[in-house]
Amino acid sequence: MKAIWAIASVMMRELVRKKDFYILLIFLLALLGFLSSQSFFNVEGISRYIKDFGYSLVTLFSFIIAVTFTAKQMPGELESKTIYPLLAKPVSRHTIILGKFLGGVVISSISFVLFYGIFCIFQWIGGTGNSFMLLGQGFLFGILFLCLVCAIAMFLSNIMTLGANITLSVLLYIMISGFADSVRDSVLFSKGITSVLGGIFYYLIPHFEFYDLRIRITHSWDPLPGWIVVAVALYTCIYCFVLIYFAGLIFRRKRL
Amino acid sequence: MREVLTANNLSYTYETGKKKVEALKGLSFAVNDGEIFGFIGPNGAGKTTTIKLLLGILISQKGELSVLGKSPTLPEARKSVGYMPEIANYYRYLTPVELLTMYGDIFGIEKKLLKARINELLRLVDLEKESDRIMGTFSKGMMQKVSFAQALVNDPDLLILDEPSSGLDPVARKNMREVIKSLRDKDKTVFFSSHELSEVELVSDRIGILNRGELLAVGPVEDLLGEKEEGQTLESYFLNMIEREI
Amino acid sequence: MNVKALLVLFVWLVAAAAIVPRVDAYNHSFLSQNPEFDVPVLMRMLGEGRSILSNLSILQADRYFHGGVGHEDERHQGSLSILENETADEDYSPVVKSKSKVSPYNILFRIPEETEVTEHAHLNGDQLKEIVPWLYYASEIDPHNVRACTLTGFYIADKMGKVDEGIAYLRKALRNNPESWEISAELGRIYYQHEKNYTEAERFLYRAWLLLEKTPHDKFQERYVLTLLAACYEKQGRTKEAMKLYEHIQELFPDAAPVRERIKKLSSK
Predict the structure, then answer these.
(1) Which CATH superfamily, name and number, covers C179-269?
(2) Which of A38, A117, C9, C249 is the most core-located residue (most Cβ within 10 A)?
(3) Domain coordinates of chain B in residue numbers?
(4) Quick check: C82 and C65 in contact, CB under 8 A?
């Protein structure tokens, strides 16, 4: 565990020392500030569109950090040859993958905590906050979402180049967020072999849409039932475990 | 004397598409406890492949390999091994202290002990003043010093050095030689590859000459030099051996 | 290398910012026979994509009206509630979730049923202000989107009670779209209903009628403008002129009882 944490901690220092995070933080502050200062025909107390944009920006910026930082870990190690002194230490290749994955999760979560905190502060200043339960669920789902994103980026980084990895991760996110519902409906209404194959496909794809609480938070709907929170958390754990396990297997077979 | 490192009939072939390159052909040697073993050979002789096999980075396709009595593919086998790579490249956004702390944590060294060890190592490689500077601003020589320090962070019983003196100025080179010699006094084993034959001659107890994946000669420096004609240096002896092969 | 690339990018951006808006403005005024309008450079650089974005913004306003949920209810399929002037009417009871047809063991198919918001709701009262930003953006992005302009004017003046702001906004919209009978009629309606300024109302409604005559239209649109105009005349005591308009409406809708009654009432005066 100490070795996994040691590998992950390097990524935390990378986050602190590189400009990416600060640029996104300034961007978020500037955009939220701009949105809050907008006046529409002297109508006061408009809040939902700020919550809508704010939540989307928080998710997007954390996603960018999760994908870019995690995806470049393994190619970066191989390209700069820093992997050799690391492999010469008493760690297995699975430990390295796990450490890098944990690093990705930790840094994107740190970013998310900060971004989400700023988002909540803006809500609080505007006097339009959500229920504590719903904000808590939004926070938890955000972290779980980032775990899944990091696991996918880590898995893909073992089988493709950095550019291809980032492109595919972004495409997967857009496509699944946009079309998972249509896939679900078509599987439910199909029969025979189409239904079976569609079902398998539906079970295999990463369900980013499960984590999207934007509408619920923006329009202050009720929080999700507890069993859904548990189910989504379990789903994330299982999906991440499988991806990281296979990433480790691929990395172990890689000739360096 | 205990054998710290043994290779028996070791072979390794790289396959790139249809092309096959035999990097090692039945390599057999042993390194004893507390000795300094110099591994020399021209470019492409198989030195780095051998080192990668010793560290478990590559897995041998044929033959047997033992490092400190264990198979090098097991992480436990590397607990008492230090490694300095040929290209000293480390996380450029870290300071030397942070890098050494990270490696120390991987070895599971206790916090207090690690702190003392890091200070000692930075003093040893003359990087005390730069201990909190980001390594992105370091010269090649300074990186080489960091690389040497990280290889020693776990106080290893076996130190594997790949071209340790490349990029170092003459003073630093001399210092490194002194450190390597001092390790012998502490009963540590050093296995190092180098192009600098004069350096190998100065430090090594025994040397192995590798060419095209085959070991041409192994033995104490004096014994090997005893075979040569009068007035010959290790360099001319080495060149003669290689040319005979060609 | 990086400096060169930055320089090329900078020159490209400056050139694009200088040329694209001018070309777009020329194209727009040439094709639509409308005068140029005041739009930020960034918006102009979107070109014809503005129209799509503007309509998307209206759709988003409609989603907000339904608490962020699209038109799931069949009563609304294919139309926009915000256009129909709906509010939180009593006949809208929240949709009760029916029992899921998906097996509880088919967990990944069950989760979206819970995470997705499917309840039906309408914004009402003070909450209606939440759709204003989207209406504002719709008309800001494409000032020639007449539907966006009239909707925005209606929501500001009628729903938010900001009559002065609504009038100022619609006057600006009319400058950008001088040929639009819809904006003119909306301005006339607001002057009539909220300001009780019948002279101004008449001016805009009459103008709307003239513009309407020049464009293809249906009799319902004509009835809408003429009814308001006739009402203006009535309020000003110009009974004869009002009568003429009601008679014209009756020609369009011979069976319209309210119009017939109106004419009867005016004749008896």
Answers:
(1) Tetratricopeptide repeat domain (1.25.40.10)
(2) C249
(3) 1-80+157-166+187-246, 86-155
(4) yes
- The whole-angstrom separation of Cα B144 and Cα B90 is 10
Q: What is the pLDDT along chain B (246 residues), one digit of tens a residue?
A: 688 899 999 999 988 878 888 888 889 999 999 899 999 888 888 888 999 999 999 988 888 999 999 999 899 999 999 999 988 889 999 999 999 999 999 999 999 999 999 999 999 888 999 999 999 999 988 999 999 999 999 999 999 999 888 777 888 888 888 888 888 888 899 998 987 787 888 888 898 988 888 888 888 877 777 655 566 677 777 777 777 665
Rounded to 5°, angle at Cα A241 from A240 and A245: 115
Which positions in chain A touch B56 (Cβ < 8 Å)? 87
A7:B57 CB<8 A:
no
HEC readout, C59-116:
HHHHHHHCCCCCCCCHHHCCCCCCCCCCCCCCCCCCCCCCCCCCCCCCHHHHHHHHHC
CB-based contact (8 Å) between C126 and chain A? yes
Assign a CATH topology to domain B1-80+157-166+187-246.
Rossmann fold (3.40.50)
Q: Which ipTM was obtained for this model?
A: 0.88
Given CB atoms, is B160 within the 8 Å cutoff of chain A? yes
Return the closest-CA partner of residue B154 out of A76, A6, A252, A8: A6
Which residue type sits at C239?
Answer: T
Two tokens at A56? 């989307």
* pTM assigned to the model: 0.84
Domain boundaries, chain C: 10-46, 48-71+101-177, 179-269
